[in-house]
Amino acid sequence: MIDEAGQESMRAGPEERPSVGKGWRLAALLVMASASVMHPAPVRAQTSTASTSGAQRPRSENKDEKRDEKADAALIERTHREEGEAILALADAALAGKPAPSDFALSWQNDFVKAQRGTFVPFTLTVDASRFARPSALVYVRATRRVATSAGEATRGDRREPPDFAVDAIFPVDLAGERAGPTRISRGFSVDPGDYDVFVVMRERVEPGVAGGRPVASVLRQALAVPDFGSAELTTSTLILADRLTPLREAVPADRLAERPYAIGLNEITPAADRRFRRDEELIVVFLVYNPTVTSERQFDLKVEYHFFRHSGSGTRTGEGDRARHPGTEPTGETYFNRTEPQRFNPALMGPSFDPRSGEPVMAGQVVPLAGFEVGEYRLDVQVTDLLTGKSVSRDVVFTVGS
After folding, report:
1. What are the pLDDT digits (tens) for 85-143?
2. DSSP 168-237
3. Is 160 left (phi over 0), alpha (psi -120 to 50) or beta?
4. Is residue 15 helix, strand or coil?
5. How many angstroms from the chain centroid is the CA of residue 115?
6. Would you state the pLDDT for residue 117?
7. Rounded distance, CA 282 to CA 94, Å?
8. Which of 135, 138, 167, 346 has the most other CB atoms within 10 Å of its CB?
9. How far apart are the C-alpha atoms of 36 and 91, rounded to whole Å?
10. Non-local CB neighbours of 289 within 8 Å, separated by 6+ positions
11. pTM of the predicted model over 0.90
12. CA 186, 189, 193, 199: dihedral to nearest 10 degrees?
């Protein structure tokens, strides 16, 4: 389970919502904290007449240096404030439905996992770093809850009300060494279940005191339907397609989870860049199972099945997210392709120290070589069955195999 302290790193309440014209508190604090990644140019060249013998400088020179340091600090503060105001203005414009810049491709993918409060949303942004003239950027993430109208349409609420954002966070990104192509940036935030619009603004940073062209920027808007993990019923996280799963020697500290959102317990997932794979690769799928039935003797028993369906090219393929299907009951446009051997999770396999009653989820997954898959589009349907109650839940994910 994601630690609550880590969730809150990117969560802001309404009282923390900064106003561009009134202090801009949240963004200013976070931007100033990132000053270490900047390399400001001095306002003017500083000279020194101190000898190598260690002779004390004249008092007038010390005063000049202090004035220069104050000027540099003022320049950095003003630059950061202007950067923050600019990035918030872009988000405000996008929220109002106005045209937004799109100087480079910016893509989003996310997952959902259970948290101590609400739902944790780990996400990954992919950007082409070669489009940046400077090796750093600011990223601003804003989530607004959709409100259902009487007509059943989703809106962002009454614009006359003061803004109240479920997520309101800004952070710097160092792109040094990542300038050759697509760069992936992972973060996470916690929100209550419901429907949201997420706005992401990424803007090239400005070097204080250095003249340059207009900083490139892009704005992304993503609809998000956040599930509710609050019930005691059997359920799972989303199916996470991964590049790899790395064991950790110790758990990631709670205050670092927002920066390493795919660290779960003593494992860290590196999510796949996309859902397109070659036949010489492996499909790695990882997910978490919550709320299995546990007896008073701490007995539990889960069975996990993996079924693969191939899009046949005829009819309409039923969309991702549909529930369990078994061989012979595949939807129109799909044919049953293959399956793996079922997995079992119980105390004999998990060890006596594992106790789901403590809230610890069961981490399940499968590694499937794709050499035997023909080129095409597939759907993996995973069914989890609680053998003590007969209840089951299923999740699915669509992926593509290329040559």
Report:
1. 999 999 999 999 999 999 999 999 999 999 988 999 999 999 988 888 888 899 999 99
2. EEEEEEE-TT-TTSEEEEEEEEEE-SEEEEEEEEEEE---TT---SPPPEEEEEEEEEEPP--SSS-EE-
3. alpha
4. helix
5. 15
6. 87
7. 39
8. 138
9. 25
10. 234, 235, 236, 302, 304, 345, 361, 362, 363, 364, 384
11. no
12. -70
Domains and CATH numbers, the chain: 4-35+83-226 (2.60.40), 235-402 (2.60.40.10)
C-alpha distances out from residue 142 to 86, 94, 168, 220, 273, Å? 15, 11, 5, 11, 23
d(CA 389, CA 348): 19
- The label of the residue with tokens 């003590």 reads 388
Average of per-residue pLDDT values in the chain: 80
pLDDT in tens, 292-342: 999 999 999 999 999 999 998 754 444 444 444 444 445 568 999 999 999
DSSP 220-234: EEEEEEEPP--SSS-
Q: What are phi and psi of 383, to 5 degrees?
A: -115, 130
